[in-house]
Design brief:
Two copies of one chain form a homodimer. With 164 residues, chain A is mainly alpha-helical. Chain A contains seven helices and two strands, in the order αααααββαα. In chain A, strands 1-2 form a two-stranded antiparallel sheet. In chain A, helix 2 packs across helix 6. The radius of gyration of chain A is 20 Å and the shape is globular. The C terminus of chain A is likely disordered. The interface between A and B is large, with 56 and 56 residues. Chain A binds a DNA duplex (30 and 30 nucleotides) through helix 2, helix 3 and helix 5.
Chain lengths: 164, 164
DNA sequence: CGTATATAATAACGCGTGTTATTATCTCCG
DNA sequence: CGGAGATAATAACACGCGTTATTATATACG
């Protein structure tokens, strides 16, 4: 049943991606310990830096985060005084998100740490290989995103027609 | 400060790997919903299939899981009657892990689902590109593993010399 | 022998993630 | 206008993951 010789290695792909992600996160958080920020929190700050005033829903899109996950992340970041929720004057359901002044000086250090951590991680790859890796992961990402969207929309459509 | 043109894209690497991992997991679990198994649980079953009777510590090594994480995963898998913990006759601290009979027929389906999910995910890559991706991720993984081990050992050494 | 150190498993806590359900509000259309 | 359906945010619950600390046992060494 296991066909070509590469098939057996291929079977590790899912686990491999997951492990790399986990180890990369650990590695980054070792460097970032002093910041008192997790990786998803950094992602939020990075996007907020260039998009202050957006809604949670929009930030969820930008960061590709589940809106519910984002609520909790923001809860903690608000408690830790990184960000602020202000009421949206034009939509009483929504909040607008802002960086607090305390967060701004940290952003530069954050990027520095991220650059440092990444360069250690990819030290085993040359420039061309990095480029390839980014390209391949990017294609995979785009495809998975599409599969996800498709599945989500299918389920939403079905939910709208419960009689079927 | 941002130097070469590829540098800006490079900065996404950490996020990109994480997103691919998350989306891959979602995709797999959509297919595996009928199995009532999560991806880490599948990993446990896959390793146990070829290594029945091992200890939790050994399984943690094989699956590259934090031992504490594994405890909880096994707790649930034991409740769900996938696996069994039996006392190790030669070491009263340890347990030996076994698949329950109920789990065995599921393994074949599990692999089938995994193959299906993966082939959908990598449909956008040709065979050579898959090979490259595996190779590059493998190198990255090995390096991150080494960085992790080194950091962990350093901390352990420091802990042993509290006076310093 | 007996003490120090290491190891196997677990407890307790915080965070990220996904799911389903709820509430308030908005929007669009008849 | 007014009701149907979409949307913004949140609540509650389960799982995975990492960290520190604890307990019981094993091992190694003086």
């Amino acid at each position: 049943m296991p066909p070509s010789p590469s098939s057996e290695r291929l079977r590790n792909l899912g686990f491999l991606v997951r492990d790399v992600s986990r180890l990369y996160g650990r590695h980054f958080e070792r460097h970032a310990r002093e910041l008192e920020l997790t990786l998803p929190q950094c992602k939020v700050l990075a996007h907020l830096q260039r998009n202050e005033g957006i809604s949670q829903a929009r930030l969820a899109e930008l960061t590709e985060t589940d809106p519910m996950t984002l609520v909790r992340t923001l809860d903690r970041m608000q408690t830790d005084r990184w960000v602020e929720r202000r009421p949206d004057p034009s939509d009483r359901r929504a909040h607008r998100l802002y960086l607090r002044e305390e967060a701004k000086p940290v952003l530069a250090r954050m990027w520095k740490i991220a650059d440092q951590a990444r360069s250690e991680a990819i030290a085993v790859l040359n420039e061309k290989e990095c480029e390839q890796l980014l390209e391949l992961l990017g294609r995979l990402h785009q495809n998975l995103q599409q599969l996800d969207t498709r599945a989500t929309e299918t389920r939403a459509t079905e939910a709208r027609r419960p009689a079927l």
